[in-house]
């Protein structure tokens, strides 16, 4: 497989990928002639770049008679994402602060501080619910990190 960074280094191929991304968002394919029309570049040039994108498995092609219809395959771009994300998120503070509130909005001790409620004769959360809350908290932390990464990505575009 060709070096994915080298493949996307070419501006024309990035333009083609942008066109394919717009179609991908609508779950649609695009013909070579439509790409030529949108980018206003020659058909041989588009075909040459589509061949490189095909070899890198960034696009799939469906043939129908003499026509070829292309679709974006974003999976190989995950390698780039995996490489770039640590750089994009390097300056972010990823600490998560959690407060537990009662139904009336008063701050209460969290699941790890159940002893504080021992004199009340009740648990803050049953063990099963505490385990579920911990899993939800971890998922929320992962989601927060993902959002920060996406925000950083958009900031770089500005």
TrEMBL record:
Return one GO MF term.
DNA-binding transcription factor activity
Per the record's keyword annotation, is Hydrolase included, yes or no? Answer: no
Q: Does the keyword Protein transport apply?
A: no
Q: Which UniProt keywords apply?
A: DNA-binding, Transcription, Transcription regulation
Gene3D superfamilies reported in the protein's UniProt record: Winged helix-like DNA-binding domain superfamily/Winged helix DNA-binding domain (1.10.10.10)
* Residue stretches making up the HTH arsR-type domain: 1-95
Entry-linked CDD domains: HTH_ARSR
Which N-terminal residues, if any, form the signal peptide?
none
Q: Which PANTHER family match?
A: TRANSCRIPTIONAL REGULATOR, ARSR FAMILY (PTHR33154), TRANSCRIPTIONAL REPRESSOR SDPR (PTHR33154:SF33)
Q: Which NCBIfam families match?
A: HTH_metalloreg
Q: What is this protein called?
A: DNA-binding transcriptional ArsR family regulator
Query: Which organism is the protein's source?
Result: Leucobacter luti
Q: What is the lineage of its organism?
A: Bacteria, Bacillati, Actinomycetota, Actinomycetes, Micrococcales
């Amino acid at each position: 497989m060709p070096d994915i960074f080298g493949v996307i280094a070419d501006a024309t191929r990035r333009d083609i990928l942008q066109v394919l991304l717009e179609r991908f968002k609508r779950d649609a394919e695009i013909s070579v002639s439509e790409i030529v029309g949108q980018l206003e570049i020659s058909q041989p040039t588009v075909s040459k770049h589509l061949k490189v994108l095909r070899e890198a498995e960034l696009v799939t092609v469906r043939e129908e008679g003499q026509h070829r219809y292309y679709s974006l395959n974003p999976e190989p771009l995950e390698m780039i994402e995996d490489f770039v994300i640590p750089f994009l998120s390097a300056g972010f503070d990823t600490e998560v602060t959690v407060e537990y509130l009662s139904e009336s909005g008063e701050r209460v001790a969290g699941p790890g501080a159940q002893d504080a409620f021992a004199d009340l004769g009740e648990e803050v959360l049953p063990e099963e619910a505490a385990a579920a809350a911990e899993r939800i908290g971890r998922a929320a932390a992962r989601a927060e990190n993902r959002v920060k990464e996406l925000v950083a990505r958009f900031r770089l575009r500005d």
